[in-house]
Write a structure and sequence with these properties.
By secondary structure, this protein is mainly α. It is 61% helix and 9% strand.
Length: 168
């Protein structure tokens, strides 16, 4: 996206964005609320951004040259791809890789928790019994995390295989 104009008044920026929205030009306002939070209300201008390929048309519309904008739109429409080529869907990526990421996030802490060792005890006191119980609970949580990671990996392979069957 490129900056087409910068406005000191958020109201003017909103009106310009509304005008471009009426002509179906993709645009966005950046730094819209910065003047509210900074010390000076006019320290940061509000910028109007549009897509690179629509920048010339947006500038002409904002300058009031509607005939020039219409000519640019006609040229863009004539050079566009045919509708049958443009409407072909891309190959969908049905790989649920996010499950592997979540499984990794459960597996690594689970393995690290299992590295916790029992304290070596010669005389058993109540304090040491609590520590042993805490380590036992932590080990259980570690195994629980590893088990959940295994379930997620199995779910990943099952979903991945079913998506391959649906594509083929």
């Amino acid at each position: 996206m490129v900056t087409v104009r910068a406005y000191w008044s958020p109201v003017e920026a909103g009106l310009a964005k509304s005008l471009l929205d009426d002509y179906e030009i993709s645009c966005a306002l950046v730094d819209e609320d910065t003047n509210r939070y900074s010390g000076a209300p006019f320290a940061v201008p509000t910028r109007l951004l549009v897509l690179k390929d629509q920048a010339d048309q947006a500038i002409r519309i904002l300058n009031g040259d509607l005939e020039g904008a219409a000519k640019l739109q006609e040229v863009a429409d004539n050079t566009a791809l045919p509708t049958d080529v443009a409407s072909e869907p891309e190959a969908l990526n049905n790989n649920p890789w996010e499950l592997l990421v979540v499984a990794f996030l459960f597996l690594v802490p689970g393995l690290c928790v299992l590295q916790t060792k029992y304290p070596v005890v010669i005389a058993i006191s109540s304090r040491i019994r609590r520590e042993i119980a805490a380590v036992t609970i932590i080990h259980f949580l570690g195994w629980l995390g590893i088990g959940f990671a295994a379930v997620l990996v199995a779910t990943y392979f099952r979903l991945w295989r079913s998506s391959l069957k649906m594509e083929g």
